[in-house]
Design a protein that fits this description.
This protein is mainly alpha-helical and 297 residues long. The protein has 14 helices and no strands. The longest helix is centred in the C-terminal third of the chain and has 35 residues.
Length: 297
């Protein structure tokens, strides 16, 4: 086998592997969408199928009855995601840029303390007491933003590594010779050259905020602050409770046709839909940022 044939075989095998990988990602999502538009009785009788015997939009009709609640949840989730991602990005940039400078005093010590937070923490109970009793963020929007997500050592290290390896020191020195101070160097030189990594972090942090419901479960009891994930999770729990205890509430509740299987798939579709709409616009930056981080990290 000559070199050309070997390269073609290798390329063919790689294409087959990538096709299989794509199918592994796409098919479960497609199955979820199909299950959400399958008749409840058909779904219980035949199980999940890419080609359901009977289509139905009863699950979405059921969710439409709570459209105002779901809409409020979307607004709160968008607000938390935007504010939280912005705060995370600002803190990360202001933390990572100084650490990327070799002339920073106590650079190694600060890096050690940053890395230390990735390995150890105080535990759930002390963390809850600190946020609830010391910072008093319980039942506020900050309870959905600050704990665990607003500052992450992993993103700081990733951004610091990008600054150190991808932005030439000579460029920064040239800006300083022209009279630029550190903040101006960061905003006028470093950030414009770091768009792929910044967009990558925005997408990763934004996904974390969008999918988060643990902070809400721990720190939020006011329904006005419920995010879409919390609302949809409560819906699933309420539907399961009603289906298991319908006899306790009398014939009126038992006679109501409440979707119990397909509703989970419909809720998952509603939760992931906005991300699917936004992702194509950020994909090229995300891929570029991952590649740069993987090659030069």
């Amino acid at each position: 086998m000559n070199i050309v044939q070997h390269d073609k075989l290798q390329q063919t095998l790689m294409h087959i592997f990538m096709i299989i990988l794509v199918l592994c990602c796409v098919l479960p999502f497609l199955l979820m969408v199909m299950a959400s538009v399958t008749d409840e009785e058909t779904l219980i009788r035949n199980g999940y199928s890419f080609f359901p015997e009977k289509f139905s939009l009863d699950t979405y009709a059921y969710l439409w009855k709570s459209a105002s609640t779901i809409g409020r949840g979307y607004v709160m989730t968008i607000a938390v995601t935007v504010i939280g991602t912005f705060c995370n990005l600002v803190i990360t940039l202001l933390f990572a840029y100084p650490l990327s400078r070799k002339d920073l005093p106590f650079r190694n010590a600060i890096s050690f303390f940053l890395f230390f937070t990735m390995l150890f923490n105080g535990g759930l109970v002390p963390t809850y007491m600190m946020y609830a009793n010391t910072f008093h963020i319980k039942d506020t929007i900050w309870a959905l933003i600050v704990p665990g997500l607003m500052m992450n050592a992993f993103y700081v290290i990733m951004m610091r590594t990008f600054f150190s390896t991808s932005i030439p020191d000579s460029l920064i020195e040239a800006a300083k010779l022209d009279g630029a101070r550190e903040l101006k160097v960061l905003t006028k030189v470093v950030i414009p050259l770091s768009k792929p990594m910044i967009v990558t972090q925005v997408l990763m942090v934004g996904l974390g905020y969008w999918n988060d419901w643990m902070n809400g479960m721990y720190y939020v009891s006011d329904q006005k602050l419920f995010t879409i994930q919390m609302i949809l999770n409560n819906m699933i729990n309420n539907i399961q409770f009603l289906s298991k205890n319908a006899a306790l509430f009398g014939a009126d509740v038992a006679a109501i046709k409440t979707p119990t299987v397909g509703i989970r798939m419909a809720i998952a579709v509603l939760a992931v839909l906005p991300i699917l709409i936004i992702y194509p616009f950020l994909q090229k930056y995300f891929v570029k940022g991952i590649v740069i981080g993987g090659v030069k990290g």
